[in-house]
């Protein structure tokens, strides 16, 4: 008798090898057999006609606050995620002195668009140091596993005080203290260290993230300490405007520490070819024996614009600002009023020089209607610009009409990054590059404008089954990227492969029925904060540490998740398939 038996599914084991039909037996938190299982299970799942995969590992989320009040980390767990890695991009909530709490909330609100009121209401602040924060997460109920990274912004402010957000350089003593705190966090079980060097990251008042101009001495000093400790991964985002010089400094962190690094890769319309140069530099580093990966998304970084979202194409219009923030019904009534509508459409707002908000409001060739089932690779002929040209109308009229659909709840899809060519051809290059990994879902972040926690579902449906504007990619390879490869990326070698001896994190998916729905706004954060969530059909069951934690994407009430402290070795008794790395 086994605790759980999954019967007759087509197993994609996470190694990238060909799928095969098998039963899976689980006892406790461990897979004990894969093949023909004669014994019965105290619980059984009929997986005939379905695919069975390892649980998905999302290496790039921002649930750093939400994890302390929400055991389910939705919407990621609607999409088969059984392990989430937090603390990316240098932002998080520890270490933190009591007088810095409000500032850290404002930084997270600005950088990751998480409502500050929700964070202030939901976070109990029963920590100061990073080990204290880990203890607080460890005692929080969890339905999935989480791993934490120590964020540079919090560490820098803890050591440097107001000099950190002022972007002043660290002294040698301050760098030494930051390095000590990072190693302290790693010794307590942090998976790694993250930082940000992008102008896109600003606090709620518009000030740059405090790590933006951290100098080589500071970054290399922290990396050197990590190397001496022999622990942790490095994760970061940078603009790479001075591409080769910037990369050389970051490459130096890996050379000094010997620790693996992953770097955000996205195509920015302002510098549409920089990502290629960064990937070339990553390839050269790997050829020299350095472990550096580009973290890449499976679709455009897509903004969702509308009356219920945080932004829409009229937010810079003074006429619209008269109703912005009013109840939805009030906004819809005003926008349907002929006089108000005419005044709004005729208005020419002033946009701040060099800011991305102008593109968001005026790049009509990148605005698309978002239906009930989203199309994440829309053709240029479906854009607002093309529709306006065909109708002989001002594009603003089309935008306004789209926003008013579904009683003002409709959303417009704006592929901000990775869609310069009007297709996902460049994303395909990113995904299939030998030195990249699947990431950047930003689960838990950008609550009112982006909902990319559904990336796993996009990889399976769009790239593995439905794509029409280019080639599809092998399903076994896609699943390998979501599981075994991502497990290796962050040092969690106890999971990501369906094999005897491995951790029993497993998805049962009705692949033929797998369907992704469009995001929508809900107001279920603390203090009534709003966020976008996105559902999918087809996730029959997600097993976490041997217990069915989610059925059809919904929680069962099982809370078998835990805080993962540090890198996890391959279980000594694991019997891996031949295709395993």
UniProtKB/TrEMBL annotation:
GO terms for cellular component: cytosol. It comes from the Bacteria. CDD domains: D-aminoacylase (cd01297). Pfam families: Amidohydro_3 (PF07969). The keyword Hydrolase applies. The keyword Hydrolase applies. One of its GO terms (molecular function) is hydrolase activity, acting on carbon-nitrogen (but not peptide) bonds, in cyclic amides. Residues 43-548 form the Amidohydrolase domain. Keywords: Hydrolase. InterPro entries: Amidohydro_3, Metal-dep_hydrolase_composite, Metal_Hydrolase, Metallo-dep_Hydrolases_sf. This is Amidohydrolase family protein. It comes from Parvibaculum sedimenti. The lineage of its organism: Bacteria, Pseudomonadati, Pseudomonadota, Alphaproteobacteria, Hyphomicrobiales.
